[in-house]
Design brief:
By secondary structure, this protein is an all-alpha fold. Helices cover about 80% and strands about 0% of the residues. It contains three helices and no strands. The longest helix has about 30 residues. The chain is rod-shaped and about 70 Å long. The N and C termini lie far apart (about 75 Å).
């Protein structure tokens, strides 16, 4: 097969390493964004706050 000859094990390992790093970084960014959205309190207007009391 010609494809196997063009892509050596070193190239495949290098590409897999970068793919892994990109995946981990994306996952960390998504988790940080989720934490910001989850922790951020929802704004309630003063009028609605008085109605709730």
């Amino acid at each position: 097969m010609e494809f196997c000859c063009l892509c050596s094990n070193d190239v495949m390992a290098y590409l897999l390493m970068w793919l892994t790093l990109i995946t981990i970084t994306t996952g960390m960014c998504l988790m940080n964004a989720y934490e910001l959205v989850k922790v951020r309190p929802v704004y309630v207007s003063p009028v609605k706050r008085k109605q709730m009391e």
